[in-house]
Every structure is written in C-alpha cells, then in structure tokens.
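User: My collaborator sent over this chain with a note saying "see what the structure looks like." That's all I know about it. Can you take a look?
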Amino acid sequence: MVDDKIMAVPEEHTMVRRQTDPLRAVTSNWFVIVMGLGGMIDAVAKVWGLTGTIGSWIEVAVWVNAGIFVVLLGIWLIRWFLAPAEMWREMTHPAHGHFFALIPIAMTIEGLNWSLMGREFGGSILDLVMNVAWILSIGFGVLFSILITDAMMRQHSPRPEHVSFAWLLGSVATALFPLLGNVIVSRELHLSLAWVRFVNVVDIAFFGMGFFVFLFFTAFLLSRYFTGPEPPAQVTPTSWLLLGAAAVLSLGVVGLAQSSAHMGLIAPSGFALLLGLALWGLAGWSFLLALTITLRVWFTGQLPFTLSWWAFVFPLSAYLIDSRVLAGALHTPWLKGWSDGLFVVASVFFLIVLAGTLIAFASGRVFKREEA
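Assistant: Without extra context I'll predict from the sequence alone. Here is the result:
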C-alpha cells in the first residue's frame, strides 16, 4: 500500500523516490509486453505464413506470450485482492488509469495469437479459446472505459503532464475486438449462424465506439499538445499509439465489411475499403510523426529504456499487417513491398526492445517503481 501521509502531500511538494517492490512494480502498464509480442507474432505469421520452421517458432512464441499473460494477470488480480484501494486510485488516475485498457487489449491479442495454433489444437478448442477471449475482452473493455471516462469527467482539469497519447488505448481496445470477432465469424460461420451474426453486430458497435472515441480524443490531445508545454520525455512511446489506433481501425472496417457481406447482413460496398485506405493514410502520417518525435527526444538523451518501449512494437506490427491486407485487397504490389519494409523496421525495433527488456530484468531495474 502507498503511505497515506505521502499521498496526502501535494505533488508539487514531494520528492520522487524509488522503491523496490516486485509485486507493486507490476502494474497494468506491463501488459504492453503481451501487446507488443503478440502483435509481432501476428505480423510474422502474416508475412511468412505458418508452415515449416517458422510455423513451429510461431507456436513456441504463442505459448511464451500466453505464459507472460497468465503470470501478469495473476499478479494483477493478487494486487486487487491485497490492495484494492491502491488499485482503484491507479485506475482513476488521470495518467495511469488509461493503461488499464491494456488488459482487454492483451486478452484480444491472446485470442488472435491462439487462432494461429491450428496445427497443434483441434478446431473446437481454438473456437472455445477465441470465444472466451472475445467475451472477456468486451466485458472488461466496457467496464474500464466507463469507469475511466467517468473519473476523467470528475476531474477539474487535466494537468499537462497527465495528457498523452495513452488516452487512445481505449479506442485501440474497442477497435481490436472486431479483429478477433472477424476470425470467429470466418471460423464458426458453418457452426452457428445466429452466434456469428451476434458477434458481427456487437463488433460493429464496438468499432463505432472506438472510431468516434478516437476522433474525439485525438482532437483533444493535439489541442493540448499544441497549446500546452511539451510533454515529459518518458511518455514519448505513447505517441506511437496514434499510429496503432489508426491502423487497427483500418483493419477493423475492412474486415467487418467483408464479414457482414459474407453473412448477407449488408450488401458488398467499396466504401469500407475507401475508409480503410483513408485510415491507412492517417496511420502513415502518424508513423512519420511518431518517428520524428522519438528521434528528437532520443538525440537529446532523454529517453532511457523502460517497458513502455514495447509501445513502439505493436503499432508498427498493426500498420504492416494493415498494409499487407490492403495490398491483397487492391492487388497492389508496391503496397506489399511497403509492408515488407515495415516488417524489417518492426523487427529491428522488436529486437532492440527485447534486448532492453531482458537486460532490465537481469539487473532488477524493472522492479524499481518511481513514486511521488
């Protein structure tokens, strides 16, 4: 638990201190590891396929990511049991609360990862895993989005240092659910038409939530960035979430249109592809903006390694998958080549972040939590 006396002192009169507490150090932010690793697994599968040695390595990686998720989820639940008041303060904090969206995001990515395990498990087991992951994801997603948004509405005015692109995690989550739902629809259409239609309609609703929250929050965030002081250097990795949200929304609208048309819920239309391309264009602009911000901060020496660096990996993975999907839909070779180039960049980022993570764990630095 956080010392109540410390919590009672105004932030501007406190000194930053480091505490080594392995249990309390594992916050919701750590689920970004599952997010980044899972995104890279899906990207490798999209680019290289699931056959041969690559397929075997993908299966190992899925198991590893699932193990990381289970451990983190177990610790996260234990913290709720041991210190519910502290967890509630974290969830309603104007900066830290948004990272709770990483839990449903991680659940969705786990479902997408497990959809790649067809060689190892039967269809019924995979269908069960994906359906459970989808149901839990939307359940936690709605719960956290309501509680966090309500907490934000009750604050007088957000401090500039609390405003970052981490606010887009909610829209990333609600836009991700349809990606898993589309896989469920394609796999289970012959099993239960009523169920997959329900999944598809719910996914469309969640896409709408994610899309409009993305528009509202992006407008607000850019306004704060333009008119307020420069955000702290440590939030730089969150700038990549603008890329991730746009890419996931692009994937979502194209996949939902295909699934809905396949079931006869809507007539085939090119509008979804047009909107997908528009969001893909926004993702490309966001990629260049995030890269510029990151390099500028990096060259000033203000960007030490933290686990938040995993936020570099997932958006790139989503963007390259989006580029690959659109290249196939449009039969555009240059777009496929662009996705191949993005895969090289994402792989370099992944290896750097993975090495940094292993070093941080070996040194114990990740268990030192900074507090005001």
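A starting point for your reply to your collaborator: DSSP finds 13 helices and two strands in the chain.
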